[in-house]
Design brief:
about 70% helix; Four Helix Bundle (Hemerythrin (Met), subunit A); mainly alpha; about 220 residues; elongated
C-alpha cells in the first residue's frame, strides 16, 4: 500500500473517532463539557491523535507546535481537559489530512527512503570494514536497485515483466543520467549478481569499495 494511502487511512480513522467523541459532548450550565462516553476514551483519543501528528510530521512541524504537544500531554491528568482540547486537535488532524491529500507532504516518503538507504549503506560499510565484502556488495546492489526503481517511478517510466537493476538502468539512460553512469551501474549490477549467486571469486574488494562510493554519490546527485 502506498505511503500516502496509509497516512490518509490512519488520519481518517483518528478524525472519525474524534468526531464521534465530540458529537457526544454537551455544555452544562456551569460551562463544563459533559459526555456519556467515559473520560478515558477522550484521553485515549488525545494520546492517539498527538502521536499520529508527531509520527507523520515530527515535533518541529507547524501542526505539532500549534497544538503544543508537550503542554497537551501534560494536561491529560486534569479531569475534563481532554474534552476541551477536542476542537483544536480535530482541526489540526483535518488540516494535516488535507496537506497529505494534496501532496504537500510528498517529500515524506522520499525522506524515509533516503534515511533507510543511508542506514543500509552504513551497514554495507561496516560489513566491508569487517572483511565481509561479498555481503556488503549484495547490500549496496540492493540499495542501488531500489533507488533506480524509484527514479523510474517518479519519471513514469514503465516496464513489462519483473523489474531489475539492469532494466531500470536501461530506462533511465539519457533521461536521468548519461551513458557513462549507465555503464558504471551495469558494472555494479554485474558484481552484485556475482555476489548474490555465489560466484565469490569474481567479487573483488576494490570493486565493492568503488560500488559503495559510487552508489552514495548517485543517491546524492540524483535524488528520487
Amino acid at each position: 500500500m502506498p505511503l500516502k494511502t496509509q497516512l490518509l487511512t490512519e488520519l481518517d480513522t483518528v478524525i472519525a473517532d474524534g468526531n464521534r467523541l465530540e458529537a457526544s459532548m454537551r455544555m452544562e450550565s456551569m460551562g463544563t463539557y459533559e459526555s456519556s462516553i467515559p473520560e478515558p476514551e477522550f484521553r485515549s483519543f488525545v494520546t492517539t491523535a498527538l502521536a499520529t501528528i508527531d509520527r507523520i510530521t515530527g515535533s518541529e512541524s507547524a501542526y505539532s507546535k500549534t497544538l503544543n504537544l508537550e503542554q497537551l500531554s501534560g494536561a491529560l491528568s486534569v479531569p475534563g481537559y481532554a474534552r476541551v482540547t477536542m476542537p483544536s486537535i480535530i482541526g489540526a488532524l483535518t488540516a494535516l489530512r488535507g496537506a497529505v491529500d494534496r501532496d504537500l507532504l510528498v517529500t515524506l516518503e522520499d525522506q524515509l527512503r533516503a534515511s533507510i538507504h543511508d542506514d543500509f549503506l552504513q551497514q554495507a560499510k561496516a560489513l566491508l570494514d569487517a572483511s565481509y565484502y561479498v555481503a556488503a556488495m549484495v547490500v549496496v546492489g540492493g540499495v542501488l536497485e531500489d533507488h533506480l526503481r524509484k527514479l523510474c517511478g517518479n519519471r513514469k517510466l514503465t516496464w513489462t515483466g519483473d523489474g531489475s537493476l539492469s532494466r531500470y538502468n536501461d530506462l533511465l539512460k539519457g533521461k536521468a543520467y548519461q551513458q557513462a553512469d549507465w555503464r558504471r551501474i551495469q558494472s555494479i549490477g554485474d558484481v552484485r549478481n556475482h555476489a548474490a549467486h555465489g560466484e565469490y571469486a569474481k567479487v573483488k574488494v576494490d570493486d565493492v569499495k568503488d560500488a559503495l562510493t559510487y552508489t552514495a554519490r548517485l543517491l546524492s546527485d540524483h535524488p528520487a
